[in-house]
Amino acid sequence: MRVLARSLITLCLAAGALGAASGPGKIRIMATVFPLREFAAAVAGERGETTLLLPPGAGVHTWQPRPEDIVRLSACDLLVYIGSGLEPWLPDMLKAFPPGRIRTLEAAAGLAIAGADEDEEPGREHAHGTLDPHVWLDFALDQHIVDRIAAELTRLDPAGGPEFTANAGRLNDRLKKLDDEFRAGLAGCRGRDIVLAGHDAFGYLAHRYGLVQTALYGLSPDAQPKPRDLMKAVDFCRRKGIKTIFFENSVPPDLSRTLAREIGGRILVLQAGHNLTRDQQAKGIGFFELMEGNLAALKDGLGCR
Amino acid sequence: MNALFAYGFLQRAFLAGILIAVACAVLGVFLILRKDAMIGHGLSHIAFAGVALGLFLNVLPLAAALAVAVASALAIVKLKGRAGLHGDTAIGIFSSLGMAVGILLASLARSFNVELMSYLFGDILAIEPLEVWLSTGLAVAVLVTVWLNYDKLLFMTFDRESARAAGIKIGRLDTLLMVLTAVTIVLGMKVAGILLVAALIVIPAAAGLQVARNFRTAVLASAVIAVAAVAGGLALSIAVNIPASAAIVILCFVAFGALFVLKRGRGLPPASD
Question: Which of residues A163, A181, A199 is at a domain's end?
């Protein structure tokens, strides 16, 4: 089995080397999650080609790479990933290559420090000792990530430097605008509680705009909620008079229905945006559209003016 | 106890769980004595393929699972009769095929892993009102069928050849039993999950058979044990905050273990009619 795996990897590397040799001169960037792909594509512009490692609909927390994914990765110049435990399968996947063979950029790497500097909760430490990896839902942190992508691309392709910097600047302007829209849109709301029948993905977003997230699942969507978790959520909604359950589609939809039925409420969808479904991908939905959708759902559900 | 009145989802969980438990236990006694104990295991794995197919084709997963499980149950009966396959060989073949097809479909579609997983472990907290009605219908169907065909089923269970010679339509009864089992498994999937639903068929019935002096009391005892395990397991899962399906199956085993030891201590004879 080991021998087979080794020879498979050698084969992959050979294929990758071939791919690299015949490339069209653009930087080939692979991103693990959708927001990073969007950012990388916007920063690289015409000088790069970006692909998404995860297939549509796959859950980033639970996905397992297949041999062909290793081949695809081997053909890339740069892998951009979040880190902080979002991609638990990545260290093993990188072990398939000689050390240093795959150039990587860990997007969340410097961010915990950035958070501490800005007098925010440093890195949002969680009960089980891991950091919340859903950093892209904080549009200020996103701007740091965008700058780091531009810097890394400049190292790879120095001639493209000015272009990358300009692209990053434009993208960051859009992110600033998005941040302002969220801040303004969520300023005067009747409720401040996001009851999420999903996994704990919106901590950064909630914290940034003064909302409180109560999630049925933990940081990773694997663990099944237990009866008391559901009872607590029902009690919480009843006590606070909450009539809107937010659903996030990395978990099965049935508990959101149970919860909504229990409180006689309705379900609105929030998109954490790790990944798109196949339908969304076919429609060509982008990061900003996804986030505008979230803002609309939040304003509706929390009763914002 | 107060919790039961305050939360609709707990009422539905208890109600559907108890109804499914009765159906499982009653069928289980017949299945064990026919040496078909593993049929539940087999059909639940086949139902996995059905769920995957339903998700793949974007139709109701429960309906797809039902269709696939019933069709496979019929195929298993046929294969057993015609191909002369011994014991549970047909079950072994179909259950692995079911898992393989399920995994294949999940990999082909690549977009519903999360939902498929919830079927593996069950979701007793998310039982819909419709599913409570379906469980009621199922429990009634199982009890009425057994009631109406009690003597024939009993005869066939203990002595197939003589039953056939006596003019009992064994094939029809086999089919009936298998179809009921398939439906029970698919509905039980929601309560205990694909991986554990077979336990509801086997363990309470095996426990009942430990203590019963005749067939009738075996059926009754199995049903009581199953209901107690489901109700107790749910209560335990609320009290200690552990997953319900695991609590139910462990309680089933505790009941079995206790009765097994009790029987050894008292020297009761094995069940017979």
Answer: A181
The answer to whether the CB atoms of A62 and B243 lie below 8 A apart is no
Cβ separation of B111 and A262 shorter than 8 Å? no
Q: Over the stretch A220-262, which tens digit does the pLDDT of each residue have?
A: 665 677 888 888 899 999 999 999 999 987 777 888 999 999 9
B244 contact residues in A (CB cutoff 8 A): 226-227
Asked if A195 and A54 sit in the same domain, the reply is no
Partner residue opposite B111 with nearest CB, options A57, A257, A258: A57
Query: Domain containing A267: what range?
Result: 187-302
Structure tokens at A264: 């006689």
Residue A228 lies in a domain: yes
How far off is chain A from B93, nearest CA to CA, in Å? 26
> What domains can you pick out in chain B, each with its CATH number?
2-266 (1.10.3470.10)
Total count of domains within chain A:
2
Sheet holding A27-31: strands in order across? A48-52, A27-31, A78-81, A104-106
- Is the ipTM higher than 0.85? The answer is no
Q: Tell if the CB–CB gap between A224 and B110 is shorter than 8 Å.
A: no
Taking only residues 222 to 241 of chain A, the set having a beta carbon closer than 8 angstroms to any beta carbon of chain B reads 224-231, 234
Q: Among A9-18, A35-44, B33-42, B184-193, where is mean pLDDT lowest? A: A9-18
pLDDT digits (tens, 9 = 90+) for B176-234: 999 999 999 999 988 888 888 899 999 999 999 998 889 999 999 999 999 999 999 99
Domain boundary among A161, A181, A201: A181
Interface probe with A: pick from B114, B191, B234, most Cβ of A within 10 Å:
B114
CA dist B39 and B178 (Å) reads 9
Token readout for B83 is 């191909």
Cβ pair B123:A250 closer than 8 A: no
Buried b (16+ CB within 10 A) or exposed e, B193-227: bbbbbbbbbbbbbbbbbbbbeebeebbbbbbbbbb
